[in-house]
Specification:
heterodimer, A: Rossmann fold, 5 helices, 5 strands, 19% strand, B: alpha+beta, four-stranded mixed sheet, 50% helix, 17% strand
Chain lengths: 129, 387
C-alpha cells in the first residue's frame, strides 16, 4: 500500500514544499502541502478519514507554532498519525526523541533515508490513518 | 556553469590515430584538443605507460584507513554520486569520488561496471602522474572541468569511456577532492554534463555548510541567532538536493531538466552569498575598511533574514534603495546591521513591516517599524561615507 501512501509536507518555505512534493509524487506518493502548523492541523483533523495523510513530514521552525507544538496538539487530540521531524536543527535526533516524533530526518535529506522513513511509517500506521 | 563553451567535440577516430603515433613516442598531433594535448604531455613527462594494464591500487588495509580519513568528504559527496548514477539510468556508467591526490574513494556504478575487475575501485590511484590523462587526474591537474572522449584517455584500457571530472573547492587554493562521471556513450556524457556541474557545486556548498556548523559552536553570545540563520542557509542546500534528484530522474528518462538545474544553480548562488554574510556575522575579527555597496548589503541581508522575520510575524521591506557606497569593515557593519534587525524584530508589532532605507549624506542604514503600542520607531545603523 505504501506506493499509494498519502504524505503531508508541512514547511513554511514554498520552494522546499514544491520540490519535496514533486519528488515524492515521482516516487508514487499522494502528496498534500501545508504552509504552517495551523494549516496542517486543520488539514489533518478536518479531512475525511479516506483522505487523511498516513505520514506527516513536519518542519520545526515555522511561524505561529513550531513543529513540537503541532505534534503535541495532534497527540492531545488522540491523533496517532506518523509524524517525522524534517529540519536542519543541529541536534535533531535528540529533539525528535524527547518530543515523541516517530522519526527524524536532517535537512538536507538523504534521498534513500527519506523514502525508507516514509515507507516504514506508512507500513506501520498507514493502513488505519 | 564552469563549462568552457569553446570545447568542441573530439573526433574519436582521428584522436585514436594521433594516440597511436603519440604512444610510439612521436610528437602530439595538432588535431588533438588543446586540453588533451597538455594532459598527454604532462602524462609523458611523468613517465606513464599508455599500455599499463590497470591503475595502481592501495592494499585493502590502507584503503580502509584512507576511507576512514576521508569519511566526511565521502558522506557529503555520496548523495550526489547517487543522483548522478540515477541520471545515467540503465546505461553503463560510474560516478566516482576522488580525494585531492586522485585516489578513488567511492564509486556508484551500474551492476556490470561495478562487477568489472579491471575497472578502478576505492583505493585506485588516478592522478595524472600515475594513470595519465583521465577524468579524475586531469581535472585535478588542470584545476577545472575536463572531458575526455575515448582515445583522449592516455591509458588504452580507458579508451571505451567518456569521462568528465570536476574538482571540488572549498578554499580557492587547493581542491578538497574531485567528482567524475564515466559513461560509454558521448551522448550520455553530454546529457549529464549540467547535472555534474550542479552536483559538484552543491557538494562544495555542503562542505562549506559543515564548516558553518563547527563555527556555531564557538560563536559565543550570538550562537542562538547564528544557529537559526545557519538552518535557514542550509535550507537552500536542502532544496537544491531535492531539485537535483528530480533533475536526475528527468535526465534518465530523456526529459528536459534544464529549468530544474537552473533553479538549483540559483539556489547554490544564494547559498554562497548567504554563507558569506553568515561568516561575517560569526567572525569577530576586525578587518580593514573596504568600499561597500549598502543597497546590495541590505538586499542580501534581508534575503538571509526572511525566515527569522516570518517566524516573528514581521515583513521586511526595502524602500527603493539608491546606490550608496560606504567605507567600512564589512564584518563589523554586518554585525551592527544584524543587531539592528534583531532589535527591530523584537520591537515591531506582529503583522507589521520593518522598512529599510539608506541615508546618503550622513551614510547610514535606517530601519523603521511600528511598535506594539502603535508608535513608529527608527533604528539607525551608522557607517562611513566613501570619499
Amino acid at each position: 500500500m505504501t506506493d499509494e501512501a498519502r504524505v503531508l509536507i508541512v514547511d513554511d518555505e514554498a520552494d522546499f514544499r514544491a520540490s519535496m512534493s514533486m519528488l515524492l509524487s515521482l516516487e508514487g506518493f499522494h502528496v498534500v502541502e501545508a504552509i504552517d502548523g495551523r494549516a496542517a492541523l486543520h488539514l489533518i483533523t478536518s479531512s475525511p478519514p479516506a483522505q487523511r495523510p498516513h505520514v506527516v513530514l513536519l518542519d520545526f521552525r515555522m511561524p505561529g507554532m513550531n513543529g513540537g507544538e503541532v505534534l503535541a496538539r495532534l497527540r492531545e487530540a488522540g491523533n496517532q498519525v506518523c509524524v517525522i521531524l524534517v529540519s536542519a536543527i543541529a541536534d535533531i535526533r535528540s529533539v525528535a526523541e524527547r518530543l515523541g516524533f516517530d522519526g527524524a530526518l536532517s535537512k538536507p535529506c538523504d534521498h534513500d533515508e527519506l523514502l525508507a522513513a516514509i515507507h516504514r511509517c506508512a507500513s506501520c500506521k498507514g493502513s488505519s490513518p | 556553469m564552469r563549462f568552457q563553451p569553446g570545447l568542441e567535440d573530439a573526433d574519436p577516430s582521428t584522436t585514436f590515430r594521433a594516440w597511436q603515433r603519440f604512444s610510439r613516442g612521436e610528437a602530439i598531433d595538432e588535431s588533438v584538443r588543446p586540453h588533451v594535448r597538455a594532459a598527454w604531455q604532462r602524462s609523458r613527462e611523468h613517465g606513464c605507460s599508455p599500455y599499463m594494464p590497470r591503475a595502481d591500487v592501495l592494499p585493502a588495509a590502507e584503503t580502509l584507513a584512507l576511507l576512514r580519513q576521508e569519511s566526511r568528504l565521502i558522506e557529503v559527496a555520496s548523495p550526489f554520486l547517487a543522483a548522478l548514477s540515477r541520471a545515467a539510468g540503465p546505461e553503463r556508467h560510474a560516478a566516482m569520488l576522488g580525494d585531492a591526490t586522485g585516489r578513488v574513494l567511492k564509486i556508484v556504478a551500474d551492476p556490470l561496471t561495478a562487477a568489472d575487475e579491471a575497472f578502478p575501485r576505492s583505493g585506485s590511484l588516478l592522478s595524472e602522474a600515475a594513470a595519465g590523462a583521465n577524468g579524475i587526474g586531469t581535472a585535478l591537474a588542470g584545476g577545472r572541468y575536463v572531458e575526455l572522449v575515448g582515445p583522449e584517455h592516455y591509458i588504452e584500457g580507458f579508451h571505451p569511456f567518456t569521462c568528465q571530472g570536476v574538482p571540488l573547492h572549498v578554499a580557492p587554493d587547493a581542491p578538497a577532492g574531485v567528482v567524475s562521471m564515466s559513461v560509454r556513450r558521448v551522448e550520455t556524457a553530454h546529457r549529464i554534463r549540467d547535472i555534474l556541474f550542479c552536483a559538484s557545486e552543491a557538494a562544495e556548498c555542503e562542505l562549506l555548510s559543515a564548516e558553518l556548523s563547527s563555527t556555531v559552536a564557538i560563536a559565543g553570545e550570538r550562537s542562538a541567532v547564528l544557529e537559526s540563520l545557519r538552518q535557514d542557509v542550509v535550507q537552500r542546500i536542502a532544496i537544491t538536493r531535492l531539485q537535483l534528484e528530480i533533475a536526475a530522474r528527468r535526465i534518465a528518462s530523456v526529459q528536459d531538466a534544464s529549468a530544474m538545474l537552473e533553479s538549483a544553480e540559483r539556489l547554490i548562488a544564494k547559498f554562497r552569498r548567504q554563507a558569506a554574510i553568515w561568516r561575517n556575522l560569526a567572525d569577530d575579527a576586525v578587518s580593514s575598511p573596504e568600499p561597500i555597496d549598502l543597497a546590495e548589503l541590505v538586499h542580501q541581508f534581508l534575503e538571509l533574514m526572511q525566515t527569522e522575520a516570518r517566524v516573528a510575524g514581521v515583513t521586511l521591506e526595502e524602500s527603493r534603495l539608491e546606490r550608496v557606497l560606504a567605507l567600512d569593515d564589512a564584518g563589523a557593519l554586518s554585525r551592527r546591521l544584524l543587531a539592528g534587525v534583531l532589535t527591530g524584530l523584537q520591537r515591531a508589532a506582529p503583522g507589521t513591516c520593518l522598512r529599510f532605507s539608506l541615508e546618503n549624506a550622513d551614510p547610514q542604514i535606517r530601519i523603521e517599524g511600528t511598535a506594539v503600542t502603535g508608535e513608529m520607531f527608527q533604528l539607525p545603523v551608522p557607517t562611513t561615507q566613501l570619499r
